[in-house]
Structure formats: C-alpha cells, structure tokens
C-alpha cells in the first residue's frame, strides 16, 4: 500500500529532474564527454603549433643573424613573411575546411608546418629560411580558423565556450614555451621542437571523429550518427540533438550556394558585422604592436626589458586559463566588456607614463606606470578580447556561409595583425603618448560595439544562435 502511494511521487520527481536537466542544456542523461575532451586536446595541438610559430623569431634573432650572416632587413623579412603566409592560409581555410572536412584541413595545415620547420632547420641562407617561415605561416592561418570551428561543432552547448577558449590558451602556451626554451636551445633545435605538436595532431586525427555537423552537411548520414554517438557516448540519447542538426541542415540546403561576394547580402549582414567587427577591434586595439615590441616599450620607458618580458610571458597563460573557466559561466559579452575596459585603462596608463617621461615629470613613477599599464593590458586582452572573438566567430555564422565568412574574418584578423605590427614603430616615432591614446580610443569603441551589436551566445546551440540572429 505504501509502495503504491510512493511510486507516483518518485516518477514525478524524476520527471522534474529531467526537465531541469533539459533546461540547463544537459539533455543527454548518460552523456560521456571523454571523446569530446580527447578531440579538443588533439585539435588544440594545432593551436600550440600556431603559438610555436609565432614565438620562434623572438629568442632566435641574434643567433640566426650571426650563423647565416643576415642583415637586419633580411631578418625583418623572415619575421614578417609569417603574417603574409597566414593571410594566404586565412583566405583558403574556409573553402578547404568545407571541401575536405575539418580533420582534412588540420592534416593539411600540419603538413605545411612540418615542411616549414624542416626547411628552417636545414636552411643555409635567407631563401630557404623565408620559404620555411612562409609555409609555417600558411599553416597558422588555416589553424586559426579550423581549430575553433571544429571544437565549436563537436562540443555540447554547456562546454562549447570553455573548450573553444582553450584554443587561445594553447596559443599563449606555445608562445611562452618558445620564449623559454629558445633561450636554452640552438635555433635549429628549436625548429625541430615545432614538429612535436604537429606529430601529436597527425596521430590523434586517426583516433577522433570528424565534425558531425560537417558530415550532416555533406549528406553522410551514417557517419554523422556514428560521429555524434562517439562524441556523446554510446549510451547517450542523441535523437534530439541529431534531429535539430538535421532540420537545420535541411533548411540550409534550400538556400543558394554562397561565395565571398554573397556574404554582403542583407540576410547575412548581422553575422558578418559581428564576426568581422570583433576581429577588427581585436587587432587594431594594438595587441600585435605591443606584443612584438614589448621589450622596446619597457626599455623606452626606463624599465628593465628582460624582467618586464618575463613577467609578460608568465602572466598571460594563467589569465587566459581564467577566461576559459569563466566564459561559459559569465558569458561572452561580460568578458568582452571587462576586457575592453581593462584595455582602455592599460593603454591610458602606458600613454601617461610616456607623457611623464617625455616632459621629465615624476621620472621615478613613469617606468612603474609603463609596466603596470602593459601588464593590465595583456591581462585584460588574455581574459576576453584574445579568445572570445574566435569563440563568437565559430558560433555566429550559419553553416552554409561558415567557410567563406570564416575565411574573411580570419583574413581581416591577419591583415590587422600585419598593419598594427608594421605601423607601431612609425607611430611610436611620431608620438609615444599619442600612440597609446589612439589604441585606448579604439578599445573604447570596441566596448560600444559589444554593447550595441554583439549578441550573447552562452548556453545556446549553434542552431538556436542562428534562429535568434535571423529573427532579429
């Protein structure tokens, strides 16, 4: 009798718990995320390879110039040609990822990086050195697009932000490791260490599944369901997620094929403005100028450059990790707003330090202001503006334009990186105070852009994000 009375209450309680799970995005009760984590680890080996490429030239400059008898102009070409390779990679990354798949694009990118590192290792002159650097730059350009897109497409909605942010964290780790071990190894040996993440990635790609959304898009139904089962666990109920993805793909198939010029149609304008706009503000806020010339900034302000650079390298990794932990709890917009505010403060403090130094006012305080401003700047960039634009870019575009739109956004990002790093020394020669106040103004505009234009994507499936954008 008592068991009969209790039974309905137990069923009702379980039903209520299940409803709460659905509301919180945990709609697969037996979901196993082990394969998601493994797939993310394999993919972000590409991000680490990206960071290794970016950080290689700084600790090796004097050794390469001495061993190969390079002029400063020849070494400057070696450093900057990386960005041109990345621009080419950015242009081709989207179509390649759409044609041969996300895994295929990562394989090809790894192959370019391996070839580039070997060319650098065996280089006997400037030409092979530049060819190798151009090849690694191309690999970087492809990685910068396909890694966050792949992670966004395989991750459950409640983990997507944090897992995608690991992309930026691993880039920071790659740069920092290159800086540190570059002081202990020869430049040729350092080039060989760049092969390690590529080898792990190439091996790991044989184990992990392809993006289910890409498989659904090209009509491989059996492989799509198998990949989704592997990512969610063999006991997980994937019917709801699979149906949502398939319904969305069927809707997209009714739309015409798009190219870069079609992106500027009214129906895609909101997604395009958000994705490209965030990349513009990320780069033109001054990050690459400050990153490439941190030592000279500290030196110009009167602070020991070696100490400042070490502090800079150490601080960015844990703060980027903090951003990865917060992105799915605090949301994308709050992190961008906090980050933008910190960037404005950091630029303003650094600008004031140069103003005081130039006018010989409070000369003892000026170096402290400079290092404080730079550290506030890099900390603020690492927690939000460094990673979040890539997360949003991977979420914001409809899958039928994701290739073309992602290529455009990545190209804009790399063009901004080149423009900022190329003009930084000219701007500093013109007016150091004015340079940082200009960056502060750009970052202030980014805050307004985020408030007015950027949508919050936390806790939504990619299909729900598109529905919200289209309805607005």
Automatic annotation (TrEMBL):
Name by which UniProt lists this protein: Major facilitator superfamily (MFS) profile domain-containing protein
Main location: membrane
One Gene Ontology CC term in the entry: membrane
Organism: Anisodus acutangulus
SUPFAM superfamilies assigned to the protein according to its UniProt record, in alphabetical order: MFS general substrate transporter
NCBIfam families, per the entry: SP
Ranges that cross the membrane: 36-57, 77-97, 109-129, 135-154, 166-184, 190-208, 272-295, 307-327, 334-356, 368-392, 404-424, 436-454
Chain segments annotated as coiled-coil in the UniProt record: none
Keyword tags: Membrane, Sugar transport, Transmembrane, Transmembrane helix, Transport
Membrane topology recorded in Swiss-Prot or TrEMBL: Multi-pass membrane protein
Top-level taxon: Eukaryota
Keyword Transcription: no
Subcellular location: Membrane
Keyword Transmembrane helix: yes
Any GO molecular function: sugar transmembrane transporter activity
């Amino acid at each position: 009798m008592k068991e009969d009375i209790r039974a309905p209450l137990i069923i009702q309680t379980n039903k209520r718990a299940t409803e709460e799970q659905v509301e919180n995005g945990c709609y697969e009760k037996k979901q196993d995320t082990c394969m998601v984590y493994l797939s993310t680890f394999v993919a972000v080996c590409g991000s680490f390879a990206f960071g290794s490429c970016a950080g290689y030239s700084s600790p090796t400059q004097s050794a390469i110039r001495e061993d190969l008898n390079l002029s400063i102009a020849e070494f400057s070409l070696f450093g900057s040609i990386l960005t041109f390779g990345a621009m080419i990679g950015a242009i081709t990354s989207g179509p390649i990822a759409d044609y041969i798949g996300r895994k295929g694009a990562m394989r090809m990118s790894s192959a370019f990086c391996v070839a580039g590192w070997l060319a650098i290792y065996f280089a006997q002159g400037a030409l092979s050195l530049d060819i190798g650097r151009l090849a690694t730059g191309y690999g970087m350009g492809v990685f910068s697009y396909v890694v966050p897109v792949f992670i966004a497409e395989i991750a459950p909605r409640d983990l997507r932000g944090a897992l995608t942010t690991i992309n930026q964290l691993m880039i920071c780790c790659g740069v920092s490791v290159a800086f540190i071990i570059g002081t202990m190894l020869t430049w040729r040996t350092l080039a060989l260490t760049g092969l390690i993440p590529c080898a792990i990635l190439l091996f790991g790609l044989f184990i992990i599944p392809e993006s289910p959304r890409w498989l659904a898009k090209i009509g491989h139904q059996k492989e799509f369901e198998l990949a989704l089962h592997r990512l969610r666990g063999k006991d997980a109920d994937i019917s709801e997620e699979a149906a949502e993805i398939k319904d969305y793909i069927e809707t997209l198939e009714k739309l015409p094929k798009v190219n870069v010029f079609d992106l500027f149609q009214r129906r895609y304008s909101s997604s395009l403005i958000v994705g490209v706009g965030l990349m513009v503000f990320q780069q033109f806020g001054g990050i690459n100028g400050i990153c490439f010339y941190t030592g000279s900034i500290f030196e110009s302000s009167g602070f020991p450059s070696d100490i400042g650079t070490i502090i800079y390298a150490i601080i960015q990794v844990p703060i980027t990790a903090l951003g990865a932990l917060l992105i799915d709890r605090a949301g994308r917009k709050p992190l961008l707003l906090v980050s933008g505010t910190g960037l404005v403060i950091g630029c303003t403090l650094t600008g004031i330090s140069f103003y005081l130094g130039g006018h010989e006012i409070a000369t003892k305080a000026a170096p402290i202001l400079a290092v404080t401003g730079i550290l506030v700047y890099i900390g603020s960039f690492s927690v939000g503006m460094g990673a979040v634009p890539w997360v949003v870019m991977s979420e914001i575009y409809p899958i039928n334009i994701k290739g073309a739109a992602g290529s455009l956004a990545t190209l804009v990002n790399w063009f901004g990186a080149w423009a900022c790093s190329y003009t930084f020394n000219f701007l500093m020669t013109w007016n150091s105070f004015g340079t940082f106040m200009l960056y502060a103004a750009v970052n202030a505009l980014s805050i307004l852009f985020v408030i007015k234009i950027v949508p919050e994507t936390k806790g939504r499936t990619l299909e729900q994000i598109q529905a919200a954008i289209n309805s607005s």
